[in-house]
Automatic annotation (TrEMBL):
Modified residues annotated as N6-carboxylysine in this record: 144
UniProt-annotated binding residues for Zn(2+) 1: 22, 24, 144, 263
Name assigned to this protein: Phosphotriesterase-related protein
Protein keywords: Hydrolase, Metal-binding
PROSITE patterns named among the record's database cross-references: PHOSPHOTRIESTERASE_1, PHOSPHOTRIESTERASE_2
Cofactor(s) demanded: a divalent metal cation
InterPro entries: AryldialkylPase_Zn-BS, Metal_Hydrolase, Phosphotriesterase
Pfam families: PTE (PF02126)
Binding site residues for Zn(2+) 2: 144, 177, 206
Length: 319
């Protein structure tokens, strides 16, 4: 029986229950943390994360996919401690998150660079999936890259092609951070397809930030799933409009293309806890279970649609 890698070890695909496909646990720049966050309390933050994840588990969610990769502060020893205490499966990713340039560690190393070697990013991503991340024993379950308002910059393209190459080598599925406002999901699909990626194994993230149904249908028609995420970030798009967009997609026959998630976190160093709570009070792991699913059901969907969004589609992502 096929299995999926979680932080605490592999699980059978059949045990992969209701899943939120894009949730971070901790987003934190270590250099910033070490120099400018003297009040950081590691033990308290771990306890807080365990509590929040257990609250989510009590609502019936069994797994989250955490796309925190290089560029977002991935630190697996911390995630491993959290996963060992939480009653939920955590799947971690490999890849690189940038909207523009690559980190300087790759500026002079790679094909055609000062140090002309095969793409080191591809090698790193494959190793994280097949051998494990650093010396933690944890293997990445999926791949992550990003393309935003700056578009397909040289750094973004290089990271994306490395992700595509690692997918072809390992079969690991892909999540892409995109901006629907410049239709960058279509650009990502084109580049990944050029690398031989099966677009059925790609989630185009942050599709939930738009009501542009023409764009969403064009993305779905190429096989990728729509990350109808960022629920709770009403500053980007109010929940009611996000819900109505999903209802219309279902009416048009795209239920099999929809995933639900928040892109939330237990901690993010972009804001203080108070600032986050003030700007986006509903941006937390419970919002979909407590508010969004009831709204979808009130809008005419039934429980089988919810099962499709949370179980069938995420499971198919790994089949």
């Amino acid at each position: 029986m096929p299995s999926i890698q979680t932080v605490t070890g592999p699980i059978d695909l059949d045990d992969f229950g209701p899943t939120l496909v894009h949730e971070h646990v901790v987003i934190m720049n270590t250099e910033y943390n070490q120099n400018y966050q003297p009040d950081w309390d590691e033990e308290a933050r771990i306890s807080d994360a365990v509590e929040k994840l257990n609250e989510l588990s009590q609502l019936g969610i069994t797994s989250i996919m955490d796309p925190t990769v290089l560029g977002l502060g991935r630190y697996i020893p911390r995630i491993k401690r959290i996963a060992e205490q939480a009653n939920i499966n955590i799947l971690v990713a490999t890849g690189l998150y940038t909207f523009n340039d690559l980190p300087m560690q790759f500026e002079y190393r790679g094909p055609g660079r000062l140090v002309d070697i095969p793409e080191p990013l591809t090698e790193m991503f494959i190793s994280d999936i097949t051998e494990g991340i650093a010396d933690t024993g944890v293997r990445a379950a999926f791949l992550k890259c990003a393309i935003e308002q700056p578009g397909l910059t040289p750094g973004v393209e290089r990271a994306m092609r490395a992700v595509g190459q690692a997918h072809v080598e390992t079969g690991a599925p892909i999540t892409v951070h995109t901006s629907p406002h410049n239709e960058s999901g279509l650009t990502a699909q084109r580049v990944l397809k050029e690398e031989g990626v099966d677009l059925d194994k790609v989630i185009i993230g942050h599709c939930g930030d738009t009501t542009d149904l023409d764009y969403l249908c064009r993305v779905a028609d190429q096989g990728s799933m729509l990350g109808m995420d960022r629920f709770g970030l009403d500053i980007f798009l109010p929940t009611a409009q996000r819900v109505e967009t999903i209802l219309e997609l279902v009416r048009r026959g795209y239920a099999d293309s929809i995933t639900l998630t928040h892109d939330a976190n237990c901690f993010i160093d972009y804001f203080s806890d108070a600032e986050k709570a003030h700007a986006a009070p509903n941006w937390h792991y419970r919002h979909i279970s407590e508010d969004v699913i009831p709204a979808l059901l009130d809008g005419g969907l039934d429980q089988s649609h919810i099962e499709t969004f949370l179980v069938t589609n995420p499971r198919r992502h790994f089949e």
